[in-house]
User: Fold these one by one.
Assistant:
Number 1:
Amino acid sequence: MWLIVLEAGGALALFLFIMWWTMFSGRTKGELPGFSGMANEAAAENSKGAGANDAAVPPEGGRGP
């Protein structure tokens, strides 16, 4: 029984260590100045020159596949 508890504790400790490592091992001085996140950049890039109904227009030449 204690072996199972010890193994579960080790797995939890490993999980927490991996979470800590991925969250706090980035740049030593934090993020770059003026960086607001990749999601905002992607949204701004997708909205450039695209109309609201551009995705709903079928390709020329008839029906789709």
Number 2:
Amino acid sequence: MVRLHWYKQDVEQQDVERPRRRRWPVPPSLLVGLAPLVVFAAVSAWRARPSDDYPTLGETVDSVVRALVIPEGIAALALCLVVTGLGWWRIATVDPTRTRLRWTVLAPVLIVLVCVVRLPLMDWSALPGHYFLLLAVGVLFVGVFEELMTRGVLLVGLRRRLPEFGVWALSCVLFGLLHLLNALAGASIGVTLVQVVFAASFGSTLYVARRLTGSLLLPVLLHAFWDFGSIGLSATTDVQDPSKIVFVGLLGLFSFGVLALGVVAGGLVAWRDDRPRRLRRRWRTVPPMAAYAVQEGAPRLQAVT
């Protein structure tokens, strides 16, 4: 009995010391990664009405509550429950490796600069104080939901089938195409197409933010901060003030330049990640040098079989 006791202790000690392989409740797959985006697009298309007044989104307290706080809060909660059920929190919100291209930090830093510059352009006295509080809550829900869906669950699914460059490109394109739904809510076709291009470019900067920090937190905050300034500025800016309109226009042009930098940075980060894979593919048909030997008396190299 004493020997058996010690044997059991040794086995238990070995189980503790032996590294255990982490198993996810639901294995990562492309279909599961795409599912939340497809469901969200279907629900949004079903809820949208051509009579919706999209240009006035977020201009009043009631609009913020009905169009942002309630629907986005429900969507964020539902997606969090889905991620919990999948067991994907770790892989959807944390990258095990960070990019070494530190200069790419310029893209998210300049986005923060644009957001900060827009704050004094807003007329904080045009609307009651609780409007801005509700707007902050609403855009935070938007940031959590859209980033967890596109830079989280979607990335996990795409990484099962594509190299990182394809993951970056397709995730940005799908994020941009998702904004086509705004046309069903009353936005003009021209404005919608600009938003698609803008969102796809912005998605690249958010991808860089995740790869730099190894976490989804910074993309969520950047997304929320950007939407707060964008909606708040459009709701409070006096269109009769020429000087302010000119400055806002110049800031918009600068923003497009920053987003172009984000596209370049995101593409280079993903391309660098795929470099070892490209090298392996390029040299896989070349036999190693050890496969050749100079046989004595032989006039040339011969392969050793």
Number 3:
Amino acid sequence: MLLMASLAVAVVAVIFLFRQDRATLIARNFTEAKIAQIESLRAALTAASTDGRNGRGPQLQMIGREYGVMLIPVDRRPEIGQVPRGPALAPLVEKLQEQLGRDTEIRLGMRLDQPVVWIRLKVGDDGARSVWAGIPIRDTEAGEVPMRLLVTLAVLLAVLLAATFWFARRLSKPLADLADAVDKVALGKRPDPLPEDGPTEIARVASNVNRMAANLERLERDRGTMLAGISHDIRTPLTRLRLASEMSVGDKQSRTEMAADIDEIDRVVTQFLDFARGNPKEAPVRIDARDALTAIADKANSRGLSVDWAAGPDVICINTFPAAFDRMLMNLIENAHRYGKPPVQLALRRDGATVEIDVLDAGEGVAAADVERLKQPFVRGDSARGGAMGAGLGLALVERLAQWHGGSFDLLPRETGGMIARLRLPLA
């Protein structure tokens, strides 16, 4: 708004200056010699009228050509041009009326991009008839006034627009970079360091964002190191417990229950490790989603997690981090068995530029108000879906892995009862 207001003031100022310039040009033409020529013209018109000639038509044209003016009878055109306004033209009007009479009417007009001063001259001794005498301003620059105005305005507009664009870019680019960096931080990614220049306030914000991103990365790294150490320290005694239970516990049922508890603890530790990883440690691979889901379904069935899956005829390729993709689908299948009810099904379909992978169960489902809460770390759906054990990291881990793949994760109600865990991933 400020820039546009400044632009408007500049344009108005240029127009005013050119009006002043035109007024000066007109005034410069009306020298004493020009006024004497007008007096001579009036005398010639009076003489023509006194000689009995009507002063119309060819006679007026001949006199006009002789004096280099345009002559139009007032009775043919009572009004012509505009009354001169503004302080710049006031001295000229005063001078002409002083020389030609106080009742002399002055008008200002344009003819073919050339200023014309119209003076009403009374003809005859009694002044009964009048003629408009149009005097073109024939200065060498007179005909260039409109063009000069356009060129100057164009140059002024170009300079102001260039300055405005530079100023806007200087403000908006750091803000755009800042917004992109904040978006990456919101997704758990480390943004590139922001340049700490530009306006003082933006430079301060950029410096603080850089510091915040560095602190978050350090905290993420420290958390990963801590969890890796804890998992290592926990797994060593777990291995000893497993060995001791196999050797010293005679009751088969007790031995089985202890082994199940140890496996559960190991699974929780694995989830902690997976969630603690800030970025994938493997390179992305282009795969056929049908083949990948077939392998995952076979793996789940071999572990006693039955899955219904039938590959379609269409090839659907996606870019994945293989271990992360496998972990993501196995988590959803385990959750479907743990919190829902069989049958558990896998479904795959293309939706525009994305692919949808669904894991469906026939359990009681989840209330819509609990969906976002269940995707948070360390939140369990015990009250909603059966109270099974767990660390509350399964769905949070799935959402993070989906973001690694440039996709999203949703929990949706199933029309026939149960829940749909849906992954949306971009096609390769």
